[in-house]
Amino acid sequence: RSSYSCCYFVLPCCYFDFHGKYSRRQSKKTQYREYLDFVAQVGFVCGFRVEEDCLRIPSTKRVCLIGKNRTYPPTERALIDKQITEYINNRQTCPVVTHDRRAGFNHKDHSDIFKEAGSELPENETETAGTIWMPGFQPREKVEQIRNCASLPRDFVDDVVLSVANLLLSAAPQKSCSNMNGGNTNTWNQGESLSLKEVAEHLNKETLKRLKSEYGGLQTLLKNNHQVFEVLNGRVHIRDWRKEKPSRKTKPEVKRRLSAEAFKTRLCWFFLHHPDGCSLPSESCPYAHGTEELR
What we know:
- By secondary structure, this protein is α+β, with helices and mostly antiparallel strands.
- Among the domains are: 83 residues, no CATH class; 120 residues, no CATH class.
- It contains 9 helices and 6 strands.
- A 3-stranded antiparallel beta sheet has the order 1-3-2, covered by helices on one side. A 3-stranded antiparallel beta sheet has the order 4-6-5.
- It is elongated and about 75 Å long.
- About 16% of the residues have low confidence.
């Protein structure tokens, strides 16, 4: 309804109507199928040729509906808009929502709205002007700000990672333990585990302030750098790759035949920064021990 050139994609999930929870009307269909049909019907009423597709995502609700083409010419917009208004009113369940809302329930012709506003709008803006259907509605910005630490400058992230790693390594080392083959692993400094609070206390105020503006803050940044850290139950550990279990997924025969180093696209942090180097030999490490191993 925002403009004639509008297209839409919707992935129906929770069962809601225009004014509240969706009420079932057909017992012969599953609730999911009935709701999909309802959402598709909304598209048809709005003058779209609705297409249905199934997404390849790990979810039981993965049927999407797409509206790319209209079923009517632009000259019939006023007629279709009236049809939409009637459809919304017919499905209205809350008597409090009356004609005083400009949500299309008492929809005026767009030209009248422009006259009342006392201004003329450019041609490309007349389609969306005067279509504020719900008081206080504020759409999302076209470009959403990424706040999961992924957009932080690389040098800032590297500095934090190095500072936290040095903090853990300089603490009293953990007691030696044995690996799967019975060998001793105490020759490689695994560092100590510290709580997130203890780690935060050792970072400067400017760094903490910058991290607090991101969702998850310090914990998210450390988890994003899973090559170096392991965060369990609120405590930060240096990751020991000798203890990592191999993936349970069976790889295709072609990939199994290829050597691990053929897929190395990042340098090994431990090879570059750990005082004892990497705990794994080059052929076993999933990361490159030197630029010559990079793909």
